[in-house]
Amino acid sequence: MGRYIQQSQTRSELQQRIAAELRAKAAAKAKDEGGEGGGYYDERDGVNDSEYIKGTKQTTSLAWAWALIFFLAIGAFIYFVILANQ
């Protein structure tokens, strides 16, 4: 019984050592990427990189019509494919 407890303690010490090494590697990688917390996900998306939106227009009120035309075109394509296979 004593050896079983000693064996399980050795495993937990090994697991603790491996976990500590993995934490150290993750911290070093995060430091290399430039952030303390995790690099890419330190701030919300779009806070600093919203330049790509400049010069774009907001969706018009006729967006539903374009969506309807798109789905009708897909439906017509599927209908013609079904007719061609018969």
What proportion of the residues form beta strands (DSSP E)? under 5%
Mean pLDDT: 79
- The secondary-structure class comes to mainly alpha
How do the helices and strands follow one another from N- to C-terminus? HH
Protein described:
The chain has helices spanning 2-33, 63-84. It has 86 residues and is an all-alpha fold. The chain has one domain. The termini are far apart. The model has no long low-confidence stretch (mean pLDDT 79).
List the keywords.
single chain, 86 residues, mainly alpha, 2 helices, 0% strand
How would you sum up this structure in a few lines?
The chain has two helices and no strands. By secondary structure, the chain is mainly alpha-helical.
